[in-house]
């Protein structure tokens, strides 16, 4: 550093004293320099940088961060750094988990807020949030089952799962809230009114993404696996899990009478009894 500030350029013999000079003159030192391990000023002056090549088995994001931590512990600052041609890919692997959790949290909070604002029903918003969270958790298991790693490709469908799950479940939940009768009757009527439409929407989406299975690219095949899982889990929550949960959580009585309080609604429409006809006067033959 001193000779650099002074503008000088000492020769290699003066700059590399003792063991360093001996090593540079040895066969091993010549081999290291021949492999590009020593960078000299002007191509033949004093050494200004060295390159140490490490062969790390299973090198990935964790090993990259471990090597960086080791260098930081030496207190060398910016004088030494770790570099690999694949670090650009490992950088996303090192940060994708935190980014995914933060994004999922923001999406779930936004969905809960908008659902509560539009429905003015806290129970309805909580039901939608529970379905969305359950879909994301089960989709993570689906990724494990299908050997799909968490990456920049799979995180996009994972975030889309929240919106698509709400899209499937909100129709059935809204029909349940508007239906009248006991909880069992309301669940049955909600499925009868919206179940077919929700099923057709899921089937049409599944048929659309099935074409991606014939592509040979990693992007398309990843989207096919992820979106297929989103549709499957969304339909399962909308047609099976959500009606069952609403059936169990809705009270059997004590509702407001309009089908929204969870209680049974008793219909006041009853068949009225017709008044008796007046007796007719006539002969016994006519009366008979």
UniProtKB/TrEMBL annotation:
SUPFAM superfamilies: Multidrug efflux transporter AcrB transmembrane domain. Keywords: Membrane, Transmembrane, Transmembrane helix. Residues 259-288 are annotated as: Disordered. The keyword Ribosomal protein does not apply. It comes from the Eukaryota. Signal peptide: none annotated. GO terms for cellular component: membrane. The chain crosses the membrane at residues 96-117, 124-143, 155-177, 198-219, 225-249. The keyword Membrane applies. Gene3D superfamilies: Multidrug efflux transporter AcrB transmembrane domain. InterPro entries: Patched_domain-protein. PANTHER family: PATCHED-RELATED, PATCHED-RELATED, ISOFORM A. This is SSD domain-containing protein. It comes from Emiliania huxleyi.
């Amino acid at each position: 550093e001193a000779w650099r500030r002074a503008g000088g350029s000492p020769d290699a013999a003066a700059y590399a004293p003792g063991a360093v000079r001996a090593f540079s003159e040895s066969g091993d030192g010549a081999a290291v320099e021949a492999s590009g391990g020593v960078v000299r000023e002007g191509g033949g002056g004093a050494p200004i940088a060295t390159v140490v090549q490490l062969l790390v088995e299973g090198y990935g994001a964790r090993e990259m961060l471990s090597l960086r931590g080791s260098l930081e512990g030496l207190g060398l600052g910016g004088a030494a750094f770790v570099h690999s041609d694949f670090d650009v890919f490992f950088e996303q692997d090192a940060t994708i988990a935190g980014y995914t959790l933060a994004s999922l949290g923001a999406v779930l909070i936004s969905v809960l807020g908008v659902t509560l604002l539009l429905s003015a029903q806290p129970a309805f918003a909580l039901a939608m949030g529970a379905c969305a969270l359950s879909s994301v958790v089960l989709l993570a298991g689906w990724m494990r089952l299908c050997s799909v790693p968490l990456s920049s490709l799979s995180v996009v469908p994972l975030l889309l799962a929240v919106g698509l799950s709400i899209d499937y479940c909100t129709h059935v939940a809204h029909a349940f809230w508007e239906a009248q009768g006991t909880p069992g009757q309301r669940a049955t009527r909600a499925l009868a009114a919206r179940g077919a439409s929700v099923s057709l929407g899921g089937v049409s989406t599944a048929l659309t993404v099935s074409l991606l299975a014939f592509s040979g690219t990693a992007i398309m095949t990843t989207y096919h696996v992820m979106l297929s899982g989103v549709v499957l889990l969304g339909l399962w929550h909308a047609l099976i899990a959500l009606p069952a949960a609403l059936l169990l959580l809705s009270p059997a009585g004590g509702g407001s009478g309009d089908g929204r309080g969870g209680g049974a609604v008793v219909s006041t429409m009853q068949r009225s009894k017709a008044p008796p006809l007046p007796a007719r006067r006539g002969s016994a033959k006519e009366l008979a």
